[in-house]
Specification:
It is a single chain. By secondary structure, the chain is mainly α. It has four helices and two strands. The protein has two domains: 56 residues; 44 residues, no CATH class. It has a two-stranded antiparallel ribbon with strand order 1-2. A hairpin with a 4-residue loop joins strand 1 and strand 2.
Length: 113
């Protein structure tokens, strides 16, 4: 996920000065259209595409590994917070020794009431 954010920031840093310089060479109403189109086309749309690719690449780790059922697993970053490492399908940072089950919705409710 950090890669998606990093490249979005880089594209923003490059796009804003270019659009700002174009302001002096293009009429103001046209500049607004170019500004909006470039922000969407260069910054927002690629970020959405990269986020979808990130989710596809990590789908198996998020859904089918032991880490995904642990309280120390951050799903949004695909990260073991306890060991500060990224698990993969073949690699578990704690090798299962520090695994703690997540509390489920059913466990948190009083079933017998």
């Amino acid at each position: 996920m950090g890669e998606v954010v990093f490249w979005t920031i880089i594209r923003t840093i490059i796009t804003i000065p270019i659009v700002w310089v174009l302001k002096d060479y293009i009429s103001f109403p046209v500049w607004w259209l170019i500004n909006l189109a470039s922000i969407y086309g260069v910054i927002i749309h690629p970020a959405i595409i990269h986020y979808r690719l990130f989710k596809e690449r990590n789908k198996e780790v998020i859904e089918y590994t032991l880490c995904s059922t642990c309280t120390n697993f951050d799903k949004s970053a695909v990260l073991c917070v306890l060991h500060d490492e990224h698990p993969t399908k073949e690699y578990l940072p704690c090798e299962g020794f520090d695994w703690e089950p997540k509390q489920s919705e059913v466990d948190n409710q009083d079933i017998f009431s």
